[in-house]
Amino acid sequence: GDTASEEEDKSDSSSSSESDASDSDSDSQSDLNERDRRLLDLVNTNQIDVKMNFKEKYKDTKCHFCRKVENSEHLSVCPVYDSIMTGTEFQDIKSQNIQKVKSALSNIREALIKRSKALSFTSIGPVSVENMALLELPSTS
Q: Is the pLDDT of residue 89 over 50?
């Protein structure tokens, strides 16, 4: 009857909207959860916890581990994060492929956490903890 044809219409409309989604950023982000969207926003606005992004809080801009300039992209090339990062994360987060984006964000988050844990034993530990708090979603309780 009528219900079957209606359902077909729905599935047609959803497949056409998927192809449209690749054109607009807001749609392509809809599959990311809140935590991922927040991290993506922080990366895009240079607010992830690396020294170049918080020059006023860190006393230098060199990576604590390899002593090269520590900007966001440094996380994907620093040897300390080799076991986590593939090196293409900061390109991958711009991908239309949601899985690629999610995987890249997951690696970036893991590298940031590893960095913060390692720094927690140093004098700049508290700075890192404070900056890392930006990753947390504000509690809605």
A: yes
